[in-house]
Design a protein that fits this description.
Number of strands of chain A: 12
Number of helices of chain B: 14
Number of strands of chain B: 20
Oligomer: heterodimer
Helix content of chain B: 25-40%
Shape of chain A: elongated
Largest sheet of chain B: 6 strands, mixed
Strand content of chain A: 15-25%
Order of helices and strands of chain A: HEHHHEHEEHEHEEEHEEHEHHE
Number of helices of chain A: 11
Structural class of chain A: alpha/beta
Helix content of chain A: 25-40%
Chain lengths: 306, 599
Amino acid sequence: MRKKKVLGIICMLLIVLTGFSVAGCAPQEDEKSPDKTASLTFTTETLPLIDGATALAPYYELMASKMLGMELEEARQWVLCSKTDGAYENLIHDKVDMIFCSMPSEEQQAMADEAGVEFEMVPFLNGGFVFFVNKENPVDSLTIQQLHDIYAGKITNWSEVGGDDTEIIPYQRPNNSGSQTGMYHYIIPENEIMEAPTEMKIAEMGGIVDAVASYDNAAGAIGYSYYYYVTSMHYTDQIKLLEIDGVAPSDETIADGTYPLINPSYAIINAKTPEDSPVREILSWLVSEEGQETAREAGYVPRLSE
Amino acid sequence: MMKRRKKAVLTVCMVLAAVIAGIFTGCTSSAPGGGDSEISWEIRTGDRINAPSGVKYFTKNNLTVETVEVNRDGSLRDPKMPSPYEYDQMIRTEKEKWRVEDIYFSGSYVQISGLKDEETEKIVNEKLKNLCLDNLERVPPYRGIKAEIGDTPVARTDVYSSTHESVYFNDNNILSVGLFVSNQFDSSVNSWGIVDVYYMETLNIDLNTGNEIMLADLFCNDIDAADFLDTAVSEAILDGNGDEEGWFYGEHIKINRPFKGLSPNQKYLIGDTGVQLLFDYETPEFDVDYGYLSLIVPFSDEFAITERFFSEDEIIYTDEKPQSKRFAYDVEREYWLDEYSGLDDHDWFTISKRAAGSPKTPEAVKKKMLAFLEEEEKEIKKEIADAVPAEDLQRYEAGEGMLTGDGYLSADSRSVGPYLTVTYTEYVNVWTPDYGNEANENVLNKENTFTETYDLRTNGEEPIKLTLENIFVPGADYEGIIKQAMIDSINGATRETNEIDQNGNSGTAAFSDYDTAAKSSDETEKRNKEYIDKLYENIVYFSIENDNLQLMIENAEEIYQEVYGKNPYDIEGGYAYINYAQNLNYSYMDCSQLTIFDF
């Protein structure tokens, strides 16, 4: 009797402990629980091998979490994140089944052409290319032409665009970075852009180099990035996103495409993927209501307006 | 993480234990940064301390730290374990004595002794041991890891792997320990077919209690530690283009989703420069591949590293002798000038000028540093004009001869505690390498370095330039103290560098180990005294370093040659003696005789 009682107490204790630990696992804002009603389900054996860009990993790992019916921490281990170049390379060399990236660069497209691989691409998220200034800056809006002229070095003072008599510090991003490529694409070609402000930075081998200066939120500063990163960063309350051509970047204007500087993200597969492949089911799922809701959950702006 | 694992170990039923362990493991996903809802940013230990507190200096813990070597399965490692090379050379029957999985593996944990409270010491040692043993066979839940190496990976045993524990900070009654784990697995994805997985686990212990120190405990009570650290991380992301996928100069950390703040149980280590935040599988918002990234948040007035855990009046060690002190390292640097140019019309001569240093450098000192560069550049121009023969210049300009040269001017400041050392360096070299012409000579060759040390505790007034005399308490025999420290430093280094001899003596007497055969000990002692006296007489300047008083001694090599009749460069250890006489660790001096720690 005594043994049974002790065992019973132990079991009760374990049940309580188990319950307590489950309660402790309550998901927080960033780490969503899987949706048990997900229409598309996989096991770790059947889940296609997925890879992608760093900035899209939070989306496709949440997607995997839903499809696998696993907690995010577990599901995350079943999707790769080889970054844009690595992901394209893996897709071209048939090491993965699908990737989540932005449009292929000329080099990536050339590599695919050389390998005889044709991409099939489905846009499923909208990103916004945004400009920001110190929140105290009275300027709320700029046109694309004004941005062009600022970065061409033609407009040099905020008073020329309705602001204070303050010199504009047009910060840029390092060449070959995603944001700088976006800058050349959306605002001003590489051969027209002014020289970027520089600062001395410590190089890898310990020396110092003149590197592109980083945005410092000074009174005259203007910088740029992608909406996804900027809107919920720790320092977001100290900066202000600018309207572009009179349209403020928001979930709505980016989703419905009225914001002028939109960059979509794509799910990309090899066009020769069989029609009955589960990879194609995932492509359909991405643009389904559930796929788009997953985008919102992961902090992105869906491709389709509500 | 450690607490969760410990709870799991306490369970009795193996099946349920496994379930619970799984749940606990899974639980780490519930908060960014592996957060635990039970842990908050509340300060849980020590007295109330308000900013500014900071880190004045470190006081070494009087502990003995020993390393225990282990095998891959946690068993104690045989000290005779062959190296991989030795193993490869063995015949089969010899090889069979060893487990191959241990050959390419090295593992260790540390154990401490010397705490007065034996129970606390036992608790600390158990934690240190478990930190290592819990990680011997572990694959952390990195993004993509299972897609790459499968669900039940086994570490490769034919390539090197390690699980090593090291002490990063052993001062102010704090012990900060890091466990570096590196394993390799077969990869089905990457081109090399093998993937390296490495991570760091940490343990920061308050030696007064044996309790773990959370990040918040390191801060003053009136400081919002979460906001302070989040701001530091955000600035690093911003400064280093952390939201860009590629790597660019000046970068520290990378993110793949917006950074919204650290968890209260963020993994960290304490070091000589500050608190090192480690981002890995517990912080999936950071892009770390299968490794980790780190960010050092330098010590500042917001920290309470000293007063919260340490008191001069309460010794918690069995050895109560005075503990040696040292300063924190200041890693923050600014660059005020970095130029590389020709010299007027003389394109054959290039000169680089650089002024850089601590942000704590007062404006007056900074101006002096920049003025040095400007004045010396003018001086160099003048010297070149005087030194280069006109005919050489004319031949060069006519394209008939060669002239070449370069120069380097630098002014660099370093802050150590409330002191600032400025090092000025000048180097010029001009020569005429006329090929086929025997007159290939140096025209101008100049090399010069000197330092100045300032006391910055002047309440906004001009910084005070320090002399050797005024860093000692009034009336102290500072000459005697310095000379004795020189002897102790040389002796100490000699003991450390010499192997133990057959009689068990560790090392030989300093100065004389290669010169005693022909000389009596009295004679040797006399010469050693003469050597030290001459070194002292030739001190030209000094600097306060983090753990030592650095002396610059003019003609140190010549003094050695003069006293011992030998060139120190030609004698093993001879040159080192000169170095050790110039770098006097504070542990070789009675710190109570120094005023530099009185603040």
